């Protein structure tokens, strides 16, 4: 009996697992099933799930496609591939895979949940409702299904059903903030604005730091010309969520209405810093810059607008006037010429062009324009040169020339303000609130630029010196650093199963399989290394890292027992404790232990392990980063901010994004 099986059974008995659960755990751990084809297919699916657990969706799709090609009747493989496609915004492909999974096995409720989201993304809202009905028939208290079904009814303007659905959510989860936003939206679409405001006030009683509620109140005050209140409400929204541009747009409009032009321009600056291509912000900033006499920079804004919309007549008219004022007479003539092609009866345009042509010596052209003006009886009054403050706003589609000095209204978001889980795009977040993983052995190439979590241990260096693999092995918390495959000669060498293998080559093979997400094979070789040398600290660390990945992988499984995960964690912790006994001064062991504890919800124990790691090495950016996340979960914002700042200062720059998110929630 192998040491692994002995150790595993000891922990299974301690955990009180049944005989069936022990069998399930062992099969999941070793990948040992009688028929050879079954072993291959099951292992490929497991590798795909491991890739999913690390958000490597492209690799996951490749593995699941291999499994489907081998055994197209595996409903789970179709579902997992659908999940990976959904994460990459391939909603049509995900929907097709969900349909096939349901055809093969109509009893897996998770597939209906995913297909509901696919229907929403592909504008098949009624079908999404049917899928959520199916989910709720088995899981009547599923929060996501209740919430998303209510939103679907709202999209279809079934306001009574939407209201009823959100009431169900609030009855069970009184503090669910998104439900308040939906209630406000329902009343808004029923033209009951006062009730919508009341729901926002209720949300603010629940949480004073709710930015969307403050933005809503700002928009309501702005619509009723309560500009001071609008400014105050938008400012509150910005203080709690400074990375959203919409409150800045509303506040700029409120500040323009009370002639605070400089402050309004600053708000448009903030919008453009966040969204450089924001059309309306450029247009409105150009108007305000022209109003305060900043003509050259106003021209640059209108240049941007006209690059996006070459036929925007109001931008042309504004730029023509500004070019004349700054002495670019021929540029102004060119703008008036383009404008007159669109509006051939625009008398003031001919008069302005005639004046400019006289100045540049084009007397013949000037005379032609003056003749047209003389024959016209149209009123030229609105063609005056003096700019004056204008408080009204116009729609983007309004190109009436008399509105050339009005600010432009930003287009409303088709998703509306309710947001929520249904509309989330995890892959577009600047930085996820996800801890960095354990350090494990890898043969991937480390890029030369940027910060990467690669650690030095003399044991790893010794392996690289004594073996002839062309690519050095790394100890890294980023197991997927390169898509470049190993050279064929290396793969042949690693595939050598001769009995003369030593511990180093076993660890190299474990690293190779771990990089391929072949966790069962990676675990077998790590186990072999432990069996060959029970005093090898690196072997225990590697086996613990693989077991931790297996734990993450099983959380993605459909209708799977918790028994394997419990066994993985118990054995991994035992391995790290043994590694610490062998080398108590190795900071990576305590860091890895913290990662494992946090993954199982033992946050205080994880925090203690990270404190130990930082005490041993106060320049370990990964430890500060993960400790900050634990503080953040516990709402210890001061401690979290300090740790994010330290991690960023040590080169882990994505910590700064989370620091910004943290401050926006204060």
Short description:
67% of the residues lie in helices and 2% in strands.
How would you characterize the overall build of this protein?
Helix content is 67%, strand content 2%. Helix 11 (177-189) packs antiparallel against helix 12 and helix 19 packs antiparallel against helix 20 (329-342). Strands 3-5-4 form a three-stranded antiparallel sheet. The protein is mostly helical and 666 residues long. The protein has helices at 3-15, 19-30, 36-53, 57-70, 75-87, 91-104, 109-121, 125-138, 143-155, 159-172, 177-189, 193-206, 211-223, 227-240, 246-257, 261-274, 279-291, 295-308, 313-325, 329-342, 347-360, 363-375, 458-466, 488-494, 503-515, 519-532, 537-554, 563-582, 587-599, 603-616, 621-633, 637-649, 654-664; strands at residues 393-394, 407-408, 440-442, 454-455, 474-476. Among the domains are: 277-408, Tetratricopeptide repeat domain (Serine Threonine Protein Phosphatase 5, Tetratricopeptide repeat, Alpha Horseshoe), CATH 1.25.40.10; 454-466 and 475-664, Tetratricopeptide repeat domain (Serine Threonine Protein Phosphatase 5, Tetratricopeptide repeat), CATH 1.25.40. The chain starts with a helix and ends with a helix. It is elongated.
């Amino acid at each position: 009996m192998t040491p692994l099986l002995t150790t595993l059974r000891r922990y299974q008995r301690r955990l009180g697992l049944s005989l069936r659960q022990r069998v399930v755990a062992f099969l999941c751990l070793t990948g040992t099933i009688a028929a050879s084809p079954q072993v291959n297919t099951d292992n490929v699916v497991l590798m795909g799930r491991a890739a999913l657990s690390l958000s490597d969706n492209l690799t996951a799709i490749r593995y699941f496609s291999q499994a489907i090609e081998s055994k197209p009747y595996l409903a789970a493989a179709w579902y997992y591939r659908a999940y990976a496609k959904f994460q990459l915004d391939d909603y049509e492909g995900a929907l097709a895979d969900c349909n096939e999974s349901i055809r093969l096995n109509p009893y897996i409720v998770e597939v209906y949940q995913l297909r509901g989201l696919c229907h929403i993304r592909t504008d098949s809202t009624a079908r999404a409702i049917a899928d959520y009905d199916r989910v709720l028939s088995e899981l009547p208290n599923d929060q996501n299904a209740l919430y998303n079904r209510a939103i679907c009814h709202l999209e279809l303007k079934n306001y009574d059903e939407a209201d009823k659905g959100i009431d169900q959510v609030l009855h069970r989860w009184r503090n669910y903030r998104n439900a308040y936003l939906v209630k406000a939206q329902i009343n808004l679409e029923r033209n009951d604005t006062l009730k919508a405001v009341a729901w926002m006030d209720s949300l603010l009683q629940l949480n004073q730091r709710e930015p969307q509620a403050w933005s809503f109140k700002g928009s309501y005050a702005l619509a009723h010309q309560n500009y001071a209140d609008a400014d105050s409400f938008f400012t509150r929204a910005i203080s709690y969520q400074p990375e959203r541009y919409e409150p800045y747009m509303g506040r700029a409009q409120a500040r323009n209405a009370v002639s605070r032009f400089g402050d309004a321009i600053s708000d448009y600056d903030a919008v453009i810093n966040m969204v450089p291509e924001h059309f309306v912000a450029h247009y409105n900033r150009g108007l305000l810059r022209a109003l305060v006499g900043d003509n050259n920079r106003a021209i640059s804004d209108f240049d941007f607008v006209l690059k996006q919309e070459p036929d925007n007549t109001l931008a042309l008219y504004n730029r023509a006037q500004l070019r004349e004022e700054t002495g670019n007479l021929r540029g102004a003539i060119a703008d008036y010429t383009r404008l007159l092609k669109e509006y051939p009866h625009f008398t003031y345009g001919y008069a302005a062009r005639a004046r400019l042509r006289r100045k540049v010596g084009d007397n013949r052209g000037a005379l032609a324009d003056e003749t047209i003006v003389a024959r016209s009886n149209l009123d030229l009054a609105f063609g005056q040169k003096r700019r004056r403050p204008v408080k009204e706003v116009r729609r983007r589609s309004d190109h009436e020339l008399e509105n050339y000095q009005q600010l432009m209204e930003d287009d409303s978001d088709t998703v509306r303000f309710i947001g929520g889980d249904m509309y989330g795009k995890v892959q577009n977040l600047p930085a996820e609130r996800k801890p960095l993983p354990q350090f494990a052995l890898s043969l991937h190439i480390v890029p030369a630029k940027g910060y990467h979590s690669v650690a030095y241990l003399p044991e790893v260096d010794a392996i690289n010196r004594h073996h002839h693999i062309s690519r050095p092995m790394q100890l890294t918390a980023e197991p997927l650093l390169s898509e470049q495959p190993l050279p064929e000669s290396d793969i042949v060498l690693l595939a050598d199963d001769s009995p003369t293998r030593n511990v180093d080559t076993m660890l190299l093979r474990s690293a190779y399989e771990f990089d391929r997400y072949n966790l069962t094979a990676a675990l077998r070789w790590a186990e072999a290394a432990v069996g060959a040398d029970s005093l090898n600290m690196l072997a225990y660390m590697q086996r613990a890292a693989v077991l931790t990945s297996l734990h993450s992988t099983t959380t993605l499984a459909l209708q799977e027992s918790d028994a394997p995960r419990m066994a993985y964690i118990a054995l991994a912790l035992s391995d790290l404790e043994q590694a610490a006994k062998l080398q108590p001064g190795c900071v990576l062991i305590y860091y890895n232990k913290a990662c494992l504890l946090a993954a199982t919800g033992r946050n205080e124990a994880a925090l203690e392990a990270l404190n130990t790691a930082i005490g041993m090495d106060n320049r370990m950016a990964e430890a500060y980063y993960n400790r900050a996340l634990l503080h953040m979960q516990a709402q210890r914002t001061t401690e979290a901010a300090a740790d994010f700042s330290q991690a960023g200062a040590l080169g882990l720059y994505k910590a700064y994004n989370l620091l910004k998110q943290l401050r926006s929630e204060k």
